[in-house]
Amino acid sequence: MNDRFLKACRREPVDCTPVWLMRQAGRYMSEYRAIRERYGFLQMVKTPEVATEITLQPINAFAVDAAIIFADILPLLEGMGLQLTYEKGEGPIIHNPLRAPDDIRALRVTDSRESVAYTIEAVRLTKRELADKIPLIGFSGAPFTLASYAIEGGGSREYRLTKKLMYTHPDTWQTLMTKLVDQISDYLLAQVEAGADALQIFDSWAGALAPGDYAEYVLPYVQQVIANVKTRQLRTVPLIYFGTDMSGMYNILRQTGADVLGVDWRIFLDDAWAQIGPGSAVQGNLDPMVLFAPWPAIERRAADILDRAAGRPGHIFNLGHGILTETPVEHVQRLVEFVHSYSADQATR
Ligand code: CP3
Predict the structure, then answer these.
(1) Tens-place pLDDT, residues 92-148
(2) Interior angle at CA 344, CA 341 and CA 346, nearest 5
(3) How far is ligand 1, taken at its centre, from the CA of residue 299, in Å?
(4) If you take atom 28 of ligand 1, which residue's CA is the nearest one?
(5) Which neighbouring-strand residues pair with 284?
(6) Hey, where are the domains in the chain?
(7) How far apart are CA 298 and CA 327, in angstroms?
(8) Measured from the CB, is residue 41 less than 6 Å from ligand 1?
(9) pLDDT tens sequence across 316-349
(10) Tell me: domain 4-346, CATH 3.20.20.210, correct?
């Protein structure tokens, strides 16, 4: 197995810097669009053979060092009692959002092996197809980010209803977060049982909170998810915790217990790492929009990130957030090759 990604997660030395890209399977690839013409998005996620094929598309096209299972963070909420659709141009919609304490009391925690059996099966199938060539990352949304969709009813800019509930009904907030912790922990553990080699927890929107509120209303639940997975898993797999806009909170994020912290592009990688401390690996942090620039501009920025990592064990190259639709495929291919070749030379400089 090409294990430089897993080694970097454990802060062990590697021959060159591992790289994968968040949302590496998606609409910027023509192979993806060809399948998407025939299926709805949820249908693709819920058909294990299709999800497996899409997971492998970027693996076949680029020399990335990890695969990530093709799925989404939101279908987990369906089993809990929420109705989910994806609308063209609008993104995900929850049709019966959580608005009152009774809605939260009615939420169910279910066995993920049944409620999201299709993703668990896709992990199993993909592991078989990958034949241990590269590691497979399983993932889940984090309690806050999932709660924000469940409460707002879709994407949000201000998180007004989410924050209002958090501030107004702390007991109800605790009930909601505790149910999400149990559901998410079970889902992550089921993916490890099915063969996932690493796990990423997406807390994409937790950076919308003030650090004090993050520490009080979110951190304890992230810690519980990570502790649950660490104490109950069959094999030891690294855990990556990812958020955006969290540059003001790295001293708090050290306490999550994650092996790897995701870093977005709003901070220099070495500044972020200094705040995070030597006890965690870091993943990031190219602005996804840079891939729309001419190649020399991309190369300069990728080299700067690698220079800032300076060959220290524990850097995984990635974008600071998911790859965007319409990203030029040839830039993705060149970026992956550049990260490998530049970092391999770095070791000998
Ligand atoms: O990284 C990968 O390749 C795995 C696939 C993956 C998807 N979603 C596929 C997807 C992963 C890891 C996710 C996570 C996810 N989903 C997050 C956290 C990461 C992040 O980007 O912050 C969030 C917030 C979601 C929720 C979600 N799903 C939104 C807001 C949208 C609509 C926006 C969009 O890009 O259309 C989705 C849909 C979605 N998830 C698509 C894909 C490939 C596009 C679906 C399509 O083909 O129409």
Answers:
(1) 999 999 999 999 999 999 999 999 999 999 999 999 999 999 999 999 999 999 999
(2) 110
(3) 26
(4) 72
(5) 317
(6) 4-346
(7) 12
(8) yes
(9) 999 999 999 999 999 999 999 999 999 999 867 6
(10) yes
